[in-house]
Amino acid sequence: MTDLSVVIVSYNVCDLLTTCLLSVHQARAGMEVEVFVVDNASQDDTLTVVRKRFPWVKLIDTGENLGFAKANNLALKQAQGRHLMILNPDTVVGEQSLKHLVDYLDSHPEVGAVGPKVLDPDGSFQATSKRGLPTPWASFCKLSGLAKLFPKTEAFNRYELGHLDPEMEHEVEVLYGAAMMVRREAYEKVGGLDESYFMYGEDVAWSDNIGKAGWRCVYLPGEPIVHVKGESTRRSDTDRDHHFYGAMRIFARKHFKLSFLSRTLIDLGVGLALVASRIRNRKKQVIPALVDLFLMWSAFWMVLPLSPEQPPLPTSVTALVFSLIGLAVFVQSGAYRKQAPRLLIFLLIAFATFALFTGFTYFFRSRILAPGVMALASGFAFAYLMGWRALLLLLRHREGLPKTLIVGDDEIALEWAKRARTGRFGRMMLIGLTGWDPDKIGEVLDGLPVLGPAKESAGWVRRWRVRKVVVSLTAAPIREIIQALEQHPLRNARVEMFDTSLLWDGEEVQPE
Asked: Residue 509: pLDDT above 60?
């Protein structure tokens, strides 16, 4: 009988899915494992790559984006394994990660589900690996920030169970749907994921159902995995915030007996948290817009009183009206989007906007403002906008190119460096390599020095203020790489991983 069925739901993450499947392929040794990939109508090359490169994978093409729960259930109904695992496509598992979980379920018949310790790519612990139920109090502490203020206090951080040592095994109420293994008997008793949830929350409901059916849910460290959190969502037009906070509302209404007042308070809290999250997630767009608004208002507020003709509104209000009109024009022109227009185009739009302001006052100068004063105010506003953007460019120039460290000294790492020099991965400064082969330390490989052991990469990140680290998953066993990241996290750097996909020549990855 098949030992394990792994179900991976994918959406527009072909490169990450490939890395995930390669790691799962290496983790199959010694077990009978079947792997399902359920593709939710990806717009990239997922279907083609999986069919050509991983013919042993059971591929399900949904033809539409069914969401996480429905897509998983399609494969779970077909799975034949003694144990069933849902696994995110943006994960990397070590060679022993799957067997560690399977062996635990085999030796603990009272356990219905088990989940591993989950790490960020930089080696930091993902607190969602072990959680409590999102009760009204736990949700309030999470949404209000009390859990962050008191992360180790059980009373205030029941949601992420911050009082429990992440290095110890614990029975928990909720496991993480990014990597969750369920005993078949438990699955047959409680059924699959609740399809009321499009994404987020279904793992909470599933864990709760398993617990209510009399099974234990266990958080099991020892063989951690890596999870690039939220990458599928970032690559889609799915409203993450809407689904995440909506899942809280669905769970509360389904699993708790709530009075009208409790439901109202929960809905209000979730709504406020949603608004706050949208602002927080868009701070890179919101902050420049607020700075522009303030600078325009300052310019108009200082100069408009010089006009002999004054509008009926106070100067500060008049200044705000013109500033808001200008901001609205900039927003509509896409000035604050991720793919914003070039600086010159923005300045031309700003110049045209202020010219229209001056023209407007010229035609209504007898009742509003003197055109000359408006022209002067617009000139100041334009100078302010241009000046602070010039300052930002200067600061970025002084920072120089982002320093990049490569963790790995094998052929794949050198090939990545070769392609990076061509600009394929963006502008950067390669400072060198850290490696796993002690004999290569101190050598220069293809023009890059091997600075030291891979396990000392965190030191080089701090010393050189490295902003990006790329990790070759072929330079050493993945398990060893993950353990090194866990023991020496690469904090304050953006970490990416790559593998043999860089050199893929169309050959299949054959099962062992």
From this structure: no
Q: Please report the pLDDT score of residue 342 as a whole number.
A: 76
Tell me, yes or no, whether 511 lies in a domain.
no
State the Cα angle at 219 between 4 and 147, rounded to 5°: 140
The whole-angstrom distance between residue 372's C-alpha and the CA centroid of its chain comes to 50
User: For residues 54 and 46, is the Cβ–Cβ distance under 8 A?
Assistant: no
Are 137 and 235 in the same domain? yes
pLDDT at 22 over 80: yes
Residue 331 has pLDDT above 70, yes or no: yes
CB 51 within 8 Å of CB 142: no
Strand partners for 225: 118
Say if residue 347 is in the same domain as residue 430. Answer: no
178 vs 361, higher pLDDT = 178
**Residues 424, 295 share a domain:** no
Tokens representing 160 are 């992420």
Max CA-CA distance within the chain? Answer: 90
For residue 437, give every residue at least 6 positions away whose Cβ sits within 8 Å of its Cβ, in sequence order, or none: 409
Cβ pair 225, 179 in contact under 8 A: yes
Parallel/antiparallel/unpaired status of strands 33-39 and 58-61: parallel
Give 454's Cβ-side CA count (13 Å radius): 28
Q: Tell me how crowded residue 174 is: count the other CB atoms within 10 A of its CB.
A: 27
Reported as a pLDDT band with limits 50, 70 and 90, residue 507 is low
CA Rg, the chain, in Å? 27
DSSP string computed for 206-223:
HHHHHHHTT-EEEEEEEE
Residues pairing with 33 in the sheet: 4
Same domain for 425 and 390, yes or no, is no
Residue 270 lies in a domain: no
Domain range for 428 is: 403-503
Q: DSSP character for 168?
A: S
Distance between CA atoms of residues 39 and 202, nearest Å = 18
Q: Report the CATH number that the domain containing residue 204 is assigned in CATH.
A: 3.90.550.10
Cα(450)–Cα(442) distance, integer angstroms:
5
Q: Which domain-ending residue is among 200, 224, 248?
A: 248
Indicate the pairing of strand 130-131 with strand 174-175: antiparallel
pLDDT band of residue 347 (cuts 50, 70, 90) is confident
Instruction: Give the DSSP H or E segment for 435.
Output: strand 429-435
**Bridge partners, 403 (sequence order):** 429
Strand 179-183 relative to strand 111-119, pairing: antiparallel
Q: Report how many domains make up the chain.
A: 3
**Mean residue pLDDT across the chain:** 86
Q: How far apart are CA 246 and CA 239, in angstroms?
A: 11
Per residue in 345-367, is it b (16+ CB within 10 Å) or e — as a string? ebeebbeebbeebbebbeeebee
> Any idea what the CATH number is for the domain that residue 490 is in?
3.40.50.720
With 0-12 / 13-18 / 19 or more C-beta atoms within 10 angstroms meaning exposed / middle / buried, residue 320 is: middle
